[in-house]
Amino acid sequence: MAKRAIYSGTFDPITNGHIDIIKRALNVFDEVIIGVASSNTKKPMFTLEQRVQLIKSATKDLKGVDVKPFDTLLVKFAKQNNILSIVRGLRAVSDFEFELQMGYANNSLDDSIDTIYFMPSLQNAFVSSSIVRELIRFDGNYNHLIPTNIKEEIKQCI
Fold first, then answer.
1. How many whole angstroms separate alpha carbon 43 and alpha carbon 79?
2. Is the pLDDT of residue 141 over 90?
3. How far apart are CA 17 and CA 21, in angstroms?
């Protein structure tokens, strides 16, 4: 039986840090479903459809990756996909506190679901979608923070 996990987030937009975590997860799991949260309350810069397409393009060469949008509790999405492992990335201590709370909350909803935490490489430890969005807004250079193969697609979306 294949080992499967969900890596969820808004991915607004997907960054090299996200790709780093996906690759690390693929070293442990046979399949990683990237769950793209609609996150309407966050008012994303990119539409859900754009984010899904950007992720598909960014991960097209990674075997074992599937991309699915969702608009429900993560635990429910995991159950719908018969998955018992959630992958999360940790960059700093501030991430740890939030992610630990979310992991405990998810486990309180379904104690059969575990959360696995991965740290990105040092070169990606500071990369976040928030930083990329700010650079986009203020016409800064963000090319080194996103997957090379989606640079033109991002320009078309903005």
1. 26
2. yes
3. 6
Indicate which residue of 23, 56, 79, 91 is catalytic.
91
Instruction: Give mean pLDDT, residues 128-148.
Output: 95
Three-point CA angle 4, 65, 119, nearest 5°: 75
144 belongs to the catalytic site? no
Catalytic (active site) residue 68 = no
Average pLDDT over residues 91-104: 91
Indicate the fold that domain 4-157 takes in CATH. Answer: Rossmann fold (3.40.50)
Selected catalytic residue, list 4, 8, 18, 88: 18
Active-site residue flag, 88? no
Question: Three-class SS of residue 8?
Answer: strand
Catalytic residue, chosen from 3, 42, 137, 151, is: 42
Domain boundaries, the chain: 4-157
Q: Is residue 63 annotated as a catalytic residue, yes or no? A: no
Q: Which residue has the tokens 């969005």?
A: 133
Determine how many CB atoms are found less than 10 A away from the CB of residue 87: 25
